[in-house]
Specification:
By secondary structure, the protein is α/β, with parallel strands linked by helices. The protein is built from 12 helices and 13 strands. It has a domain at 7-151 and 182-207: Rossmann fold (3-Layer(aba) Sandwich), CATH 3.40.50. The longest helix is centred in the N-terminal third of the chain and has 18 residues, at 85-102. Bound molecules: NADP nicotinamide-adenine-dinucleotide phosphate.
């Protein structure tokens, strides 16, 4: 960066994307303030980083934090926060837009979801509505749109990982044929850093697709292969996403409400068909899916409780390569 590094408020700093992004922004020389509803807890788990109290339900905390920075990254969602989460997300986006305008922010970067090529789930509808609201203000806003982000700590990848690691017999319903473009967390971080500094006139929407278009079935089976695990596969064409979400909730560690919402989002293909952030980063080498999975599995293995390790070894005792825990 040529001039003095901008000060950035990173909302969602304790979350999956936020915690990966925090260190990258620091490496790039940004002055980073992490926003969280519980700064004490955040400081305990990431000593040395700056956090301050930011609750999007409390506009005063928002305005106080935004008045001290030049730019902001918006990584907040309310999925898992009850049935009325879409309303909450809309209210939060409106409050953020208004506070950003009052504080004269230079730029907002928001990471949201990508529009499916067919039916749209409640979760994706709400993520897209958040983008529309943020972009409709006077602060130039880059809305980045991604499908599943692959990395340790990603709720959506955790579902894929647990299904791949825990099922010796895999039931593959037809909706798992829908294709999307999973992207490595390292590539998402690079995209957000670029979006914070690239030349910008007004607001824009840019896709952040991974390099391969894969079905849910491909993702699970390739993740299983990376775990040296060979599950038997059985097609069950008539099982709907809604029905599947019940056993997915039972098999995986994912938050039940989040799992249901994410699985509902897999009814249609989700493939980028507009401008991409990569158009302005032509030399950036995107991470192949299998490499992203290998990194994510190592990170996930570190977090896995002992009882889950034992359970997975027992479940996979009959598969060809029972080691589901790369070191
Ligand atoms: N993960 C993926 O695969 C994926 C894919 C595509 C797009 N995205 C997008 O990426 C963004 C970040 O996702 P993520 O996976 O990193 O989520 P995450 O791990 O669940 O983190 C969400 C963060 O939101 C914060 N938060 C929630 N409610 C808040 C409120 N009222 N005020 C202030 N902060 C609040 C939480 O911080 P505290 O609890 O510390 O306050 C938490 O750190 C989201 O916009 C999501 O749509 C993610």
């Amino acid at each position: 960066m040529s001039k003095a590094a901008p000060r950035v408020l990173l909302t969602g700093a304790t979350g999956f994307v936020g915690s990966h992004l925090f260190s990258a922004l620091e490496r790039e020389g940004f002055e980073v303030v992490g926003g969280t509803r519980d700064p004490e807890r955040a400081r305990t788990s990431a000593p040395g980083r700056t956090f301050r109290h930011v609750d999007l339900d409390d506009p005063k905390s928002l305005e106080a934090a935004l008045s001290e920075v030049d730019r902001a990254v918006y990584l907040v969602h309310s999925m898992g926060g009850g049935r009325r989460y879409a309303e909450a997300e809309q209210k939060n986006a409106q409050a953020f837009r208004a506070a950003a305008e009052r504080c004269g922010l230079e730029r907002i970067v928001y990471l949201g979801g990508m529009r499916p090529n067919g039916a749209i789930s409640r979760h994706l509808k709400s993520r897209l509505a958040t983008g529309v609201t943020l972009r409709s203000g006077s602060v130039p806003t880059v809305e980045l749109q991604a499908t599943m982000v692959v990395g340790g700590g990603s709720e959506s990848f955790r579902i894929v990982r647990d299904l791949a690691a825990r099922l010796p017999l895999m039931l593959l319903p037809r909706w798992l044929e829908s294709r999307s473009q999973p992207v490595a967390i390292a590539d998402v971080v690079a995209a957000i850093v670029h979006a914070l500094t690239m030349p910008l006139e007004g607001s824009t929407v840019l896709a952040v697709p991974g390099p391969e278009s894969l079905s849910g079935r491909d993702m699970i089976l390739r993740t299983a292969r990376t775990l040296s695990h060979e599950p038997k596969v059985l097609g069950v064409p008539l099982v709907t996403p809604r029905l599947s979400s019940y056993w997915i909730r039972w098999v995986t560690r994912a938050n039940p409400q989040v799992a249901t919402e994410l699985v509902e989002g897999l009814r249609s293909n989700i493939v980028a068909d507009g401008p991409e952030i990569w158009d302005s980063m032509p030399d950036y080498p995107r991470t192949p899916f299998d490499d992203a999975v290998a990194v994510a599995l190592r990170e996930e293995a570190r977090e896995l409780p002992m009882r889950s390790r034992v359970l997975e070894r027992l479940l996979n005792v009959f598969s060809r390569h029972p080691s589901a825990h790369p070191s």
